[in-house]
TrEMBL record:
Subcellular location per the Swiss-Prot or TrEMBL entry: Endomembrane system
Primary location class: membrane
Protein name according to UniProt: Glycerol-3-phosphate 1-O-acyltransferase
Example of a GO MF term: glycerol-3-phosphate O-acyltransferase activity
Keywords recorded for this protein, A-Z: Acyltransferase, Membrane, Transferase
Higher taxonomy: Bacteria, Bacillati, Actinomycetota, Actinomycetes, Mycobacteriales
Record's bilayer topology term: Peripheral membrane protein
Length: 807
């Protein structure tokens, strides 16, 4: 039997000592007594000749023995920790243990006897951080405010349990960092009880009823974690990802975060492309003994029995809509503040759902606002936000996502759904890349963006309610934007992304390996020059590697291969364009600025501008405004600086000699590739459909948005068959919904709540005025789509297969 007693160091050298033994069986009481009698009790420096007191960790016993004491004993919690047997180099509980009714982390008395006799290395006595009774009383008054002996006893009990949990992690590892007695601590909080009193008064209910509802809400919310459930959940869920992907993630990414986590809580905000995201990411954390995150999940995934196990492994299921339930909202805010104050890490997918297109969706702000509220209330000094990119080479669930984009309904999650998903996950899908972005100080970012969270209450009150709320909302939006940019900045481009980029860029035509090589080679050179992060794109530098990627995509049903002619030719499988676009879109944010520069040059060339750069900036900002809900653009000055960098890659001397527009166009073609039609076409096509359908409507309002999107799907399909749209990847409910959001933002839908950025003069505009501006938008988009077609015609890879290999 070993002992962990480092907590004794640094304590005062005199005074009485009380050991609080967290022991539930006779065996555990005997082990603790043996450990104390072996001389460990003396290490806590009791008065000479005075025997330390020994007390079971029980609130009633504490109330009788400690609450009324006039002296100031040192209170020392102790516990026996039971470890599972070592298997495959690790000590994890397994289903086989539980099914035999033997919890190796909490064995029954008979099992404890056998372990002590045959495997004493599986037991350790741990000691929690000691504290003087006076210090415990002081903390109790500050945090709880209830002077009763029973309340103090409950507080001492909770403090001892928390101290033991911390000490036990030195034995079990940081991945088992779990909160204990959370509901009890929250319900005893003086601040939370005061808030419930106010809510009871405001809602005309008794305070006891408000307390009852709050306790019920917390039982629904709080993740009741256990070490065994953490082991079993990981064991149960691992088959859903371990067979499908090889994980590429360096443990060194976590080194800096470990140091930060000693001072601040971390909030991980990953990209969301698969149901497996949380499983893959948290398995990576667990394998590197990083504290497990509290994962905020939607109630749609709380189905039995997975939901029950997930909740005991750290998943917090939150209602998707609170309605007017102020008590539930208060419980969510308090739970968030509690976890952050205790430095428990959080994780959620701030896009609000899986990406349907492969690129980041616009962020949702609800949960992020709860974290901000904890900062504003000074419950935590700071929170570090960690952007996380999870990028897959292939996903088995994309067919269902594509069906939703074609207008189908999302299948409800349940046991049947899980069984089907698990079956698909047995098939190899290549690699998954986990990349952590630069951590962001939430306090610094919000303050820099105008949130007066560090100001005094009087200053905040003087700011005015509406104005203050607007400043806070704007600051949070800027922070979310920075998170999205941080995710994109570390998201690697994969081989599948580049191959689908090439194949989707041609209309109704199959390509040979040589033609695909011709399309990809200059892009690879561009990626290298820019220092873009990559996954497995090196395989594309050889013909055999490219053929292997094409074979994998063919097996996955994304690409079709015709091999009965002189040589194989490849194209997107009919009906799989949305799936192919998903892979392409995972990396196209790296090419958006390049695509905009191309269209700006073509605009200047068409208009015959003498100063193409100045004219190009103007048109580039028009495109930026059209695409602002599809991509994350910086402020205009930074945006223009980024465009200058892109032009330098096209023509390194442009700034020295101010080239004519034809020289820029020639230099553009000389790079060997054009990106505009490959990157922007599907988004601008979708916007054109929405703008034209809005222009065709006689009224300026829009009562049923879902019906309108369905109309866009039907008409978009017709436009594609007529050749007005490039391909099926443009006919997407997701793209139409985002285009509709743009139209709303531009003030083209009367009465819409989020038309905050309507053009000057649009407020109060009549139906005729709105119809005119809808037509103007449709015209602008038709012009942009025409330039996209011109870009496609200029792309060298669309004219011939370039000779030679890669440079």
């Amino acid at each position: 039997m070993k002992a962990v007693d480092e907590a004794a160091a640094g304590q005062e050298s005199s005074g009485p000592v009380v050991f609080l033994a967290d022991a539930r069986t006779k065996v555990e009481r005997e082990l603790i007594a043996e450990w104390l009698d072996a001389g460990h009790a003396d290490e806590f420096a009791a008065e000479a000749g005075e025997r330390p007191s020994r007390l079971l960790l029980d609130s009633m016993r504490i109330a009788g023995a400690l609450s009324g004491r006039a002296d100031d004993p040192l209170v020392v919690p102790v516990r026996v920790t039971w470890l599972p047997p070592e298997r495959d180099g690790d000590r994890n509980a397994r289903w086989a243990d539980v099914l035999t009714l033997n919890n190796p982390r909490n064995p029954n008395v008979l099992a404890q006897r056998r372990i002590v006799r045959d495997h004493p290395e599986r037991t350790q006595v741990v000691v929690g951080a000691p504290a003087r009774l006076s210090a415990l009383r002081q903390r109790h008054r500050r945090e709880v405010g209830d002077a009763s002996p029973d309340s103090l006893a409950r507080y001492i009990h909770r403090s001892a349990v928390v101290a033991l949990e911390r000490a036990e992690r030195a034995v079990t590892g940081d991945r088992y960092k779990v909160p204990r007695l959370v509901i009890e601590q929250i319900m005893d909080s003086v601040g939370f009880r005061a808030r419930l009193r106010d809510l009871a008064r405001d809602n005309g209910i008794e305070q006891a009823e408000a307390m009852r509802r709050a306790r019920s809400c917390l039982k629904e919310l709080v993740a009741v974690q256990s070490k065994v459930a953490t082991d079993l959940f990981a064991q149960t869920m691992r088959p859903l990802h371990s067979s499908a992907w090889s994980v590429h993630a360096g443990a060194s990414q976590l080194d800096g975060l470990r140091a930060l986590n000693k001072r601040f809580p971390l909030v991980f905000l990953p990209s969301h492309r698969s149901y497996a995201d949380a499983l893959v990411f948290n398995d990576f954390l667990a394998r590197n003994d990083f504290p497990r995150n509290h994962i905020m999940g939607g109630a749609n995934l709380a189905f039995w029995p997975v939901g029950s196990l997930a909740r005991r492994a750290g998943t917090v299921f939150i209602r998707r809509s609170f309605g007017d339930d102020e008590i539930y909202k208060a419980c969510v805010e308090e739970y968030f503040a509690y976890l952050l104050a205790k430095r428990f890490n959080l994780e959620w997918y701030f896009e609000g759902g899986r990406s349907r297109t492969g690129k980041l969706r616009a962020p949702r702000y609800g949960l992020l606002n709860y974290v901000a509220e904890a900062l504003r209330a000074r419950r935590v000094p700071d929170v570090m936000i960690v952007p996380v990119s999870i990028a897959y080479e292939r996903l088995h669930e994309l067919e269902a996502i594509a069906e939703e984009q074609r207008g189908g309904k999302k299948k409800a999650e349940g046991l049947a759904w899980l069984a089907k998903y698990a079956k698909a996950q047995r098939l190899l899908a290549g690699n998954v890349y986990i990349r952590l972005g630069e951590p962001l100080s939430m306090k610094e970012r919000l303050a820099a963006a105008g949130d007066p969270l560090g100001a005094t209450d009087s200053v905040n009150e003087a700011a005015g309610g509406d104005d203050l709320a607007a400043r806070q909302r704007a600051a949070l939006q800027k922070l979310a934007f920075e998170v999205a940019v941080g995710i994109n900045r570390v998201t690697p481009i994969t081989a599948n992304a580049l191959v689908t980029l090439a194949l989707l860029g041609v209309r109704d035509r199959s390509l040979t390996v040589g033609e695909i090589t011709a399309a990809i080679a200059p892009v690879l050179r561009y990626i290298t020059r820019r220092g873009v992060p990559t996954g497995n794109v090196a395989v594309l530098r050889s013909t055999s590697g490219l053929r292997a990627v094409l074979a994998d995509l063919t097996t996955a049903g994304v690409v079709t291969t015709y091999a009965d002619g002189e040589e194989p030719v490849y194209s997107i499988e009919p009906g799989q364009h949305l799936v192919a676009a998903f892979y392409r879109n995972s990396g196209i944010h790296w090419f958006v600025n390049r695509a905009i520069v191309e269209l700006a040059i073509l605009d200047a060339a068409e208009a015959g501008f003498v100063d193409p750069i100045r004219a190009g900036w103007k048109y580039a900002n028009v495109l930026r405004n059209l695409l602002k809900f599809e991509f994350f653009f910086p402020d205009r000055d930074t945006f223009e600086a980024e465009l200058r960098e892109e032009i330098t890659l096209i023509d390194p001397q442009w700034n020295e000699r101010q080239p004519a527009v034809d020289e820029l166009a020639s230099a553009l073609e000389g790079t060997g590739f054009i990106m505009a039609h490959r990157v922007l076409r599907s988004f601008l096509d979708a916007q054109l459909v929405v703008a034209e359908r809005l222009s065709a409507r006689p009224d300026a309002g829009l009562d049923d948005r879902d019906a309108f999107v369905d109309e866009c799907v039907r008409v978009g399909q017709q436009m594609m068959l007529q050749g007005r749209l490039h391909g099926p990847e443009s006919v997407s409910t997701e793209l139409f919904a985002t285009a509709l959001k743009l139209a709303t933002n531009l003030g083209l839908i009367q009465g819409a709540k989020d038309a905050s950025a309507a053009e000057p003069g649009a407020v109060g505009e009549d139906d005729a005025g709105i119809r005119v501006r809808r037509q103007e938008l449709a015209g602008t988009l038709a012009t942009a789509v025409a330039r996209i077609r011109l870009a496609e015609a200029l792309d060298p890879s669309n004219r011939k297969a370039l000779p030679g290999g890669y440079s």
